[in-house]
């Protein structure tokens, strides 16, 4: 270990060489290398965490650059995980970097996180958060939670030494129509850096045992006035008894008869029957990657562009993760009940995995 590199933090009497050694021996997996994951990875790497795992299978897009500051314009179209791995290797050659070039799903979550001491959830969707929570309870792993919405952020540490879990705060996943996302509501560029830094700090505290950890408390940060509110979280004993993953991690209120699995859609696309693929993501997202034969109608323009669709041919709605396509399905079902319409379960993310 290059002691001079970490001298400034080892000089802290509350930290010292003992805590530095704990960091060196620790392993942390970060779910997502985006707005939250980047500061988490960069600070843990710089501070000397021995092993860092990265779970990511997205590419760098123009809309990422205002907040995901490890990426540059030269990285557009490249896999985030590769760009991040190169940056971390240049930052600290002592760190062992483990790449999990995949989306986190039910079939791989237990295998991936089993080998790590701490899990950091830097994802941006509810299904992944519930999946991470349940896997961490099963494997008895603490996980550091962070989330963003507009000018606000949340941070907590769940499942630490019998403490409360994510489900103790949010017992059930909200319905798809209730789920906000930054594609529609936005996020201020600097906020992920602030919240991600809080997550990195909590991770260091969990590993080293210094300070007061945010276990049993949900910290709410408001960037507009820099206020911080901490809410006590009671432990619900039943939530500590999860011993297997749920059968499904899709948002509530998704009518299964109106969903289509990626494998089924792929088969239909390779068949001879007529179908309409409608991608409701932004124009920029569509041009970065889209399924062959799909038509781009952003969700906010759907009501104005409905005449572009043939009401006699089945419509299959697509988005990145299935959230926006479900909202489009809900709107079409209410406003054009004579349409035969479905949405892709799990979105293009799931299609890339299974097809």
Q: Which ranges are low-confidence, i.e. pLDDT below 50, for 5 or more consecutive residues?
A: none
Name the structural class.
Answer: alpha/beta
Name the beta content range.
15-25%
Count of helix runs: 13
Ends apart, CA distance between termini: 44 Å
Q: From the alpha-carbon coordinates, what is the Rg to the nearest angstrom?
A: 21 Å
| Element-level helix/strand string | HHEHEHEHEHEEHHHEEEHEHEEHEH
Whole-number average pLDDT?
A: 90
Count the E strands: 13
Shape: globular
Sheet with the most strands, sense and barrel status: 8 strands, mixed
Helix content: 25-40%
Q: Within the largest sheet, what's the order of strands?
A: 3-2-1-4-5-6-7-8
Describe the protein's architecture and organization.
Helix 3 packs across helix 9 (191-208). This protein is 33% helix and 17% strand. The chain has an eight-stranded mixed beta sheet, with helices on both faces. The protein is an alpha/beta fold and 355 residues long. It has helices at 7-10, 16-25, 37-47, 80-91, 109-113, 126-139, 166-169, 182-185, 191-208, 262-269, 283-288, 323-335, 347-354; strands at 27-31, 51-55, 96-100, 118-121, 143-149, 152-158, 217-222, 227-232, 259-260, 276-279, 294-296, 315-318, 341-344.
Which helices and strands occur, and which strands form pairs?
Layout: H1 7-10, H2 16-25, E1 27-31, H3 37-47, E2 51-55, H4 80-91, E3 96-100, H5 109-113, E4 118-121, H6 126-139, E5 143-149, E6 152-158, H7 166-169, H8 182-185, H9 191-208, E7 217-222, E8 227-232, E9 259-260, H10 262-269, E10 276-279, H11 283-288, E11 294-296, E12 315-318, H12 323-335, E13 341-344, H13 347-354
Parallel strand pairs: 1-2, 1-4, 2-3, 4-5, 9-13, 10-11, 10-12, 12-13
Antiparallel strand pairs: 5-6, 6-7, 7-8
Helix pairs in contact: 3-9
